[in-house]
Specification:
- 29% of the residues lie in helices and 31% in strands.
- The chain is built from six helices and six strands.
- The protein has a single domain, classed as Nuclear Transport Factor 2, Chain: A, CATH 3.10.450.
- A six-stranded mixed beta sheet has the order 2-1-6-5-4-3.
- The chain is an alpha+beta fold.
- Helix 1 (2-21) runs antiparallel to helix 4 (44-51).
Length: 172
């Protein structure tokens, strides 16, 4: 369980720090490359936080090659953004590029992490975002399923679900 927490927390810090500086930087995580490759241009504290990802082993013993499933070899990532589904790194990055805000700052309230089958990690994030310098913070939740890729020997984002937290109250 400790490894899942370390992997999830390091990933969460890397992802939002990267997204806040330049959202293009998160493309590598959807393309199943080493997450560290995108951290090279980030401040030292970000690089230090993400560098421990490369030293973490998968959470369990490797499966025999004959049992390695498609997602272990790097199936397409899937993003559900406010109910809209985007499959594959190209479609996901097109969606992230199309977001109307120019600047964003994520404030992480909590990131809960659990190991999953086949060496994966679920990361459930809740937080707030400040968009384009607006004083009003938007609450959000995002769920990542990080999957171990036996070909690259690292994690990639297999699933990503994002929602702005809007509550509809009954009037009356």
């Amino acid at each position: 369980m400790g490894d899942a927490r370390a992997i999830g927390e390091n990933f969460t810090n890397w992802y939002y720090q990267t997204f806040d500086v330049d959202r293009e930087g998160v493309a590598a995580a959807y393309q199943r490359r080493l997450l560290l490759l995108c951290a090279a241009g980030l401040p030292d504290q970000t690089r230090a936080a993400s560098s421990s990802l490369s030293s973490l082993a998968p959470l369990g013993p490797p499966l025999p090659p004959a049992l390695a499933s498609a997602h272990q070899r790097g199936a397409d990532s899937v993003l559900t953004y406010e109910g809209e589904v985007f499959q594959g790194a190209v479609a996901i990055m097109a969606k992230l590029r199309s977001l109307s805000f120019r600047t964003v700052s994520h404030i992480i309230t909590a990131a809960d992490c659990q190991p999953t089958i086949n060496n994966g990690v679920i990361v459930c994030v809740i937080g707030q975002m400040q968009v384009d310098g607006d004083d009003k913070l938007l609450a959000y939740s995002e769920l990542f399923h990080l999957q171990w890729n036996v070909e690259t020997n690292n994690y990639y984002i297999m699933n990503d679900c994002f929602r702005i937290s809007v509550h509809h109250y009954a009037s009356g």
